[in-house]
Amino acid sequence: MLLLVLACTNASLDIVDPDTGKPPRDSGGTDSGDSGDSGDSGDSGDTGDTGDSGTLEWDCDALPEVEANELDGPRGYHDVIFDVEGYQYGSDTSSLIRSDYAGDARPFVPGLGVVEGMDWLHDGDMVVAVSPGSLVRVKSTGDTSDIVRGLTGAYGVTVGPDGMVYVGYVQVDSQSRMVRVNPDTGEWTEWLELRRGDAPRMVVFGLDSTDAYVITVGRGIVYRVELDENLDPIDSAQEYATVGPRWQDGLGMDVCGNLYVAEFDSSGVYRVRTDGTVETLVRPRQQTYGHAVEWGRGFGGWRADAFYQPQPYDGYTVREIVVGVPSAATVRTWR
Fold it and tell me: Element (H or E) spanning 135, and its range?
């Protein structure tokens, strides 16, 4: 759990353990009474250490230079997610793997299959898209159950503020659509269709949930769609920005409202400012191209001011992109 202290241009975030109410310990260290990082002698407010520090500060008008770090042990394929115990979950195209920041990676759900998008349901269970088109619930015990099958092509998975699951790239009547799934009943409805030639890949909801942003496969367009109080589109989605030539794979938003997009054809990671300006953050060789954009929670070494990207063409390794600002999920509101 992340407790927001202040959300504005100059802001800070207190990172606390949900059980103790104190900053979390580093999963690889020992507790010697220090409420901050186990490697820091008593300073729980050191903003330079955001993996297990008590406070993270940022300025939306003066974001720092981006830092990219290759991690040794964690594993992932097309997406990763994090729990509050300090673990990351990702796929190796066969099993669902649980990793800590130090690199201890072990099967959590052996033989699950090829996992695409992943997210946390409001009841604490995990929801994952398993190729070629199943939406699966994963409990903390590793037990699984199908939510729904037959969502051919399912890729991006986002649990909305309403608790529904928004799944992109689903083939419906020979067209790619985004669908909304009730995780309790498995019932689904079409939520968004874009103009022919653009397939909705993944969605992220705006800071106050009055709009949403959608990445695509097609012409490199990121779309914005206005939403009503039930998170239904009010009108047709509008072009918001152009990012890369064609194939967008990952999407996230920070607390400042900036978007972050991973694009395959250019092997790049881009930031889309709130004024629509597109900046190139990272553009490595294709082998180390990173799918997905998933922020850490500030537990167990995973930084709250960084997002993480699995690298499927580099042995399912994971990359850390430090952007100096936390995820929009820490401040997002609805109604």
Answer: strand 134-138
